[in-house]
Amino acid sequence: MASEKAFDFVLLGPTGYTGKLCAEHIVQHLPTDLKWALAGRSAGKLEAVAKELRALNPDRIQPEILTVQLTETELKPLAEKTRLIINCVGPYHLYSTPVIIPSLGIESTPPDILTWALVKTIREQLSTGAKEAVSCVHEMKSSGPSGGTLATILTTLETASITDLTKSLNPFALVASEPPKQVPSRPLSELLTGVTCVSDLGTLTTSPSGIADAAVVHRSSTLMREFYSPRFYFRHYVHVRNALVGVAFHYAFVIGILLLTIPPVRWLVNKLIYAPGQGPSKEQCARDRVEYRGVAIPDADTAKPKRALGRLFYEGDMYTLTGVFLAEAAMVILENEAKIKKVSRGGMVTPASLGQEFVDRLDKVGCHIDTRLVDN
User: With the C-alpha atoms ordered 330, 336, 340, 343, is the resulting torsion angle positive or negative?
Assistant: First the structure.
């Protein structure tokens, strides 16, 4: 990984809730000879984080401290002196647009990399692509969202235009090539209730991140069109115990979003939530876990095609997992830069475009993906 750049990577925003967790993973798990730096707006806060990191692993090369404002004038020189920026600055909609490669955290890495693994299983064992995949959050035990996550939601609703919000509802908004000409229609019952049933996954309902996850997965599938299939289509949901719970979850989500469009409601919510940079304690998160499940159907016109089943699971909290995703993805990019540029075509990088190297690194740090082929 030799380079003439001053740094292998710069962690931008390490003083925030997720940024600090990412930094801790870096000092405890990544190679100790990496040249890296901590960057942000407050030198004092950066020094405090660096001191905490030094106590975790005093034997590694310590990061340099770089103060930088979130403007193009200061971010451009920062980018020129490093091979890669890990961006943890939030709320993302307000502050991260100049540097962001989106959706490499808990959203939308699990559905994207799990779907890639399902397609890989079909490709290797059946010598064909996949015409459809469905994933769901099967189980999530979480101590709750951080202040940064909640602030991102609120500021997006406050500052995004109706046009931008409408565009964000398009599951093909990020495609890199032509999307499939035909997609499965959703039955009227699902449109009205948000509930559907999928073989092997059970009763499913609307996922708050479903459209965003679909946009990322469809970008991956159109970046690797021949690997997936020109006909490939993806959907994402949340698993629920029964249809009644699914309907309640769906309408609670819809009503909640509508209420948050009302300024006085957002003001009240802001008073009740964690401030940005804060979140659940490690003690509160000790028993957190998450499991995603998915199914993919081969692109084969047979009466009873085989299908691939898979799951991604992790014992720990969602924000630590996001830090893991960011740090391990950075290592994949540093070690496979030419390959990643080729797959991503020099544009937006998705979790799936990091491939098997990413899966292998995640497995070593406790985030596991299992897939298998089954008969109908």
Answer: negative
Question: Are 199 and 347 within one domain?
Answer: yes
Say yes or no: 49 and 139 in one domain: no
pTM for the complete prediction?
0.92
pLDDT in tens, 203-239: 999 999 999 999 999 999 999 999 999 999 999 999 9
Q: Which two tokens stand for residue 372?
A: 């298998």
Rounded Cα–Cα distance for residues 84 and 34 (Å): 12
Task: Identify whether residues 218 and 324 lie together within a single domain.
Answer: yes
Based on the structure, what is the number of domains in the chain?
2
Which of 38-54 are b and which e, b meaning 16 or more Cβ less than 10 Å from the residue's Cβ?
A: bbbbeeebbeebbeebe
Give the sign of the dihedral formed by CA 212, CA 159, CA 176, CA 101.
negative
> Can you tell me the distance from the alpha carbon of 297 to that of 131, in angstroms, rounded to the nearest whole number?
6
- Is residue 166 assigned to a domain? no
pLDDT one-digit tens code per residue, 319-374: 899 999 999 999 999 999 999 999 998 888 999 999 999 999 999 999 999 999 99
Please report, for residues 14, 138, 279, 280, 283, the alpha-carbon distance to residue 286 in angstroms, rounded to integers and kept in the order given. 22, 19, 14, 10, 5
Q: What CA–CA distance (Å, rounded) separates 277 from 275?
A: 6
- What distance in Å separates the CA atoms of residue 352 and residue 323, rounded to the nearest whole number? 17
133 strand-pairing partners:
234, 296
